[in-house]
Amino acid sequence: MKKLLFLLFTVVLIAKEQLFVHVPSSLPSSATNTSFGRELLVLIDDAKEEISFAIYGLREQDAVLEALIRAKKRGVTIKAVVDSDSHGNNYYTDTHTLYKHFSVVSDGKSYIMHNKFFIIDRKTLWSGSANISDTGTGGYNANNAVTTDDKRVVSLYQEEFDEMFDEKKFSKKKNKRGYERIKTEDSIISVYFSPKSNTYEEGIKELIRNAKEYIFVPIFYLTHKELSYELMRAKKRGVDVKIILDASAAGNKYSMHKKLREEGVEVKVENFGGKMHCKSMVVDDSHIISGSMNFTKAGNSTNDENTLIIQNSTLAIKYKNYFLELWQKIPDKQ
């Protein structure tokens, strides 16, 4: 009886939305070592009917590939969308193996299909900043991921996937639509897809302008001028603004981090072996941003991307603590 009560209590505590974070490891790994990578493997192994996924590419993650192959062997339909250039080439070395096993569609253009999401049985979404690679799900980079089983959120992602897979529409050829806000059992989730939604204008700008206490930004690329100026204005009205930026991105001539520092915003450039690869923000113990979109003009206006803005205090506090853990690991001066 005690065991039954414990099991019932455990089930009650499981939230519809879960947040997974990863402090970067010292080396790339072909093993799927991250919490969000292990969660993805569980979801794939639990699939009964269909898996639809859109990823930038695949490299040295045999556990994910083998899980997908097992799913296909037990009768699960597997559909994939991946990035490619006009010559059919992909940045990641093992992406070609997907074509051998599954139905795969690629964008075939100079702009980027930059998504990283999986839909399981049209019931569960896995989405985040991590590529399916030795540095992403393998753990070398700092990344995050979110899962949800909210029906409307999942259906919006399925519609986005189907437009790419079935209609072969990418980037600005996709049907224009605004964002949608969904109330789940635990959260309020706003769903954005670039470039059909103007993620910055319709979501991020308002979130920054409404911030009262703090805005913490772990981000790979930050070259979006309007977003950066909103962060400066938030700092001037007394909001605690902190940014962790990737070192390679800091070397980009369009990076806004120097201007942000000049205006008093605290910016640390990571000193990890890997990358600060998150594309995210946490605000006032209330909201998080998660997804594939870097804070760039291309991410907002050209690339195929997905972004979630989630109002959920439990997730926000967890993400704040993750940010501060990374912040403490980085020296003040670089």
Automatic annotation (TrEMBL):
PROSITE patterns in the cross-refs: PLD
Its EC number(s): 3.1.4.4
Domain PLD phosphodiesterase residue range list: 109-136, 272-299
Superkingdom per UniProt: Bacteria
Zinc-finger keyword on record: no
GO annotation terms (biological process): lipid catabolic process; phosphorus metabolic process
Record keywords: Hydrolase, Lipid degradation, Lipid metabolism
Cross-referenced SUPFAM superfamilies: Phospholipase D/nuclease (SSF56024)
GO molecular function: phospholipase D activity; RNA endonuclease activity producing 5'-phosphomonoesters, hydrolytic mechanism
Alphabetized CDD domains for the sequence: PLDc_Nuc_like
Reaction catalysed by this enzyme: a 1,2-diacyl-sn-glycero-3-phosphocholine + H2O = a 1,2-diacyl-sn-glycero-3-phosphate + choline + H(+)
InterPro entries per record: PLD-like_dom, PLD_domain, PLipase_D/transphosphatidylase
Family stated for the protein in its record: Belongs to the phospholipase D family.
This protein's name: phospholipase D
Organism phylogeny: Bacteria, Pseudomonadati, Campylobacterota, Epsilonproteobacteria, Campylobacterales
